[in-house]
């Protein structure tokens, strides 16, 4: 029997390739041929099929292939994508598997068109992979598919992918954090749906004693960066690193922190949470999407959106560093329960 050929789309790029690279490595280790499909947003599946002849195409986000901010452009792109999907499936006989990272695009898009093309695509996939339990009914309702179409396969851990090993003391010296201070960390892209402004507002209201708040990550645009900078202006305890944090520097921010705060407004899955777990950190986050599944070893740190972030942070303030470290270590062990081989084995045998 020939080795199974599996192509991955879309191409994530150098700044966000943790998941596909580890997934392809796992497949190759198991004897499959795995590579990125072809770049470009016009007929990506058909062109990949012609060039690589894959048995299966594993897709993550499909928005770039079928959606634009405007309705007319979205309809045209969606129609072309529809033809592309049908050609890949019926002309080239490729199987399609979709990993669902979020139900809706975080930026404004024509929502009816978005749901329609998502339903069409899901119906033409042999399976829709979701990354945890607890949202099956909502996902099935949105996509218009039976529960049997879904398969739950969590991501493998990020631990071991990024450099780690720096001590807390050394990390804090590098960031010029006063000795003995507590550190709360938000690390990730800075976008309105991430809730960074709510985190800053809660910090300013609580005014936690001897506690620094670090906001690190690349801002969505200049206007949003200016908004965050204005909120933080004049407050010495708020430290901004509004830039892309290189892989080698991630360990500095995580080692320096006592707690990671992810105050998302709307999210299905979170790579930021998995990253924090890999660095053995306790995580404050809302009880939405798949976060209760991913962070189930520390449910006391999850807050109902209606209760608000402030109340969750107030509860955390009573815990000492050793208690937070124990919760963080439990998070890392939970993340390590899963492997990139889990999805690789599924793709080989589906």
Task: Describe what this molecule looks like in 3D.
This protein is of the alpha/beta class and 350 residues long. It folds into two domains: 5-152, Glycogen Phosphorylase B (Rossmann fold, 3-Layer(aba) Sandwich), CATH 3.40.50.2000; 168-335, 3-Layer(aba) Sandwich (Rossmann fold). Helix content is 43%, strand content 14%. It has helices at 18-29, 44-52, 63-66, 71-91, 111-124, 136-143, 168-174, 196-206, 222-232, 247-256, 271-278, 291-294, 309-316, 321-335, 340-349, and strands spanning 5-9, 33-36, 56-59, 95-99, 127-130, 150-152, 182-187, 211-216, 238-241, 259-261, 283-286, 302-303. The strands form two sheets. It has a six-stranded parallel sheet, with helices on both faces. A six-stranded parallel sheet has the order 9-8-7-10-11-12, with helices on both faces. Helix 5 (111-124) links the parallel strand 4 (95-99) and strand 5 (127-130). The longest helix is centred in the N-terminal third of the chain and has 21 residues, at 71-91. It is globular.
Strand order of the largest sheet: 2-1-3-4-5-6
CATH class assignment of the largest domain? Alpha Beta
Q: What is the β-strand count?
A: 12
Q: Would you give the CATH topology of the largest domain?
A: Rossmann fold
Spatial extent as radius of gyration: 21 Å
CATH architecture verdict of the largest domain: 3-Layer(aba) Sandwich
Portion of residues in helices? 40-55%
Query: First CA to last CA: what distance?
Result: 15 Å
Helix and strand content put the structural class at alpha/beta
Largest sheet: 6 strands, parallel
Uncertain runs are: none
In round numbers, the mean pLDDT is 94
Helical segment tally? 15
Question: What's the CATH H-level homologous superfamily of the largest domain?
Answer: Glycogen Phosphorylase B
Oligomer: single chain
